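Local shape tokens

___
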Amino acid sequence: MNRIASTPEPPYYAVIFTSQRASGDDNAYAEMAGKMFALASQQPGFLGVESVRDADGVGITVSYWSSLDAIKNWKRNEEHLVAQAKGKSTWYQQFQIRICKVEREYGNPCR
């Protein structure tokens, strides 16, 4: 996976998932995260993802989508619903989800 997502010309949407991990089974969490990335990648409207987590367990994952309908469909995906429930019951102390419309972007490779 490329660390910085390659996205199309705006507009498109970003889902920002900020979380604080609870202590627990890191292997099971990593396995589920990998499954969710693979599953999301197959969803219509998925454009890419970027994700980081610090040593204290605070993480930010930004997924990019072509439309609000694509985001709604991903949220309702049955396997994703199972992962969401496990996250609420086991893997996260706290989380916040923000949905944004990207209207402009810029940047370039520095090297």
Residues 101 and 107 are 18 Å apart (CA to CA).
